[in-house]
């Protein structure tokens, strides 16, 4: 997939610290990189299959949440919010709702 290695390099350079929220984590492509730097990672996805695949990559260092990101409300404050290539899948009419989160 174009851009994967470039985004990985950006994550490594940025080195997100503190509490990181990963929205729509999917199969966990970025989760290990985030977990390498962060004190805590919360990864959210609506698909139990995707969460299982992601958990197989990282394991216990991540808090996994099965939820639709459009309706989910976090129970804590985060220092960094990350989402990879997922934004291109958001229907235009849902943008306002997404940014409200």
TrEMBL record:
- Entry's Pfam families? Methyltransf_25
Q: Give the UniProt keywords, A-Z.
A: Methyltransferase, Transferase
Q: Does the keyword Transferase apply?
A: yes
Q: Please state every residue range assigned to the domain named Methyltransferase.
A: 20-98
GO biological process assignments: methylation
GO MF terms listed in the record are: methyltransferase activity
User: Which protein is depicted?
Assistant: Class I SAM-dependent methyltransferase
